[in-house]
Write a structure and sequence with these properties.
Blueprint lengths: L1 H25 L4 H70 L1
Length: 101
Amino acid sequence: MSERDSNAFVWFLAGLGLGALAGVLYAPRSGSETREALRARAEEGRDYVRSRAREAKEQAQQWADRGREVVNQQKEQFRAAYEAGRQAYQEATDTGTSKNL
């Protein structure tokens, strides 16, 4: 059994060596070219993420601005309604006291 295990290990090493040799022979680029390509792709990915983050931030800012506008409009409408109600109440109470005099 020991000799069989030894042969299996030798064949494993031989296959590993042949695989590495085939990889080196058929590699489309050299190591430095591959590293440069990986670096370029990583930079592209980083730039893409940054641009998407910037767009998301701008979109969130637009939504926040629009939300503030809506809240301000609602406050103005409420204020106008309150003032109109107050004025109507004053006119009604002033007219009521004038008739009683």
